[in-house]
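Quick check before the chapter quiz. The format below is the same one you will see on the exam, so make sure you can read both the input and the output lines.
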Amino acid sequence: MPSLLVQGILFDLDGVLINSTPSVTRVWHDWAIRHGQDPDHAAHTAHGRRAIETVRLLAPELDAEAELKDLELREIADSYDTAVFPGAASLLASLPPRQWAIVTSGTRDLATHRLGIAGLPIPALMITGSDIQQGKPHPEPYQRGAALLGLPTSACVAVEDAPNGIRAALDAGMPVLGVPTTYPVAELQDATELLSSLAALRATIVGDFIRLNW
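Here is the expected output.
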């Protein structure tokens, strides 16, 4: 059974701990139609990326700040079917609260709302799209996440479902466990290891370390 010994775990939120893909897809399909974009391409581009950067990439002529505010409100209003992934609650409960954090591209208000809808506690430590200057695939989010734990990036592992997040974590200097929930396995090949699902991941506390098995 593969294993990894780390001091900290950094979880992406959407697509890793919670399933918000239907909501993200609906909101970005609607946005794309309203702005003359291809709906499927817009949704595919948006997953794992800050909304403001998706807008800048797909429609640079728009006011990205204004679009971000509108998209945040729409995603909060359309979160009714957000659900926790099997194994997420028990895995988080098994971890010391200061040795894990969430690193998400969503805004803080959106992340907090979705966690509540899914029935997961708000973590003590969280880096959101509201806290950073450069989003995934830039390494800043995971660098900030490791700093929040008080650890070097090399002492952490990231758990990701999106190519942008995988690239961000690798460039920050940490291994990545990929979960094929949002993107097909073929698009996650850069991950250090691929999990069949989050439910396959087990954590054992060994002194100041966490042993992960899958």
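If your answer matched, good. The chain has a mean pLDDT of 97.
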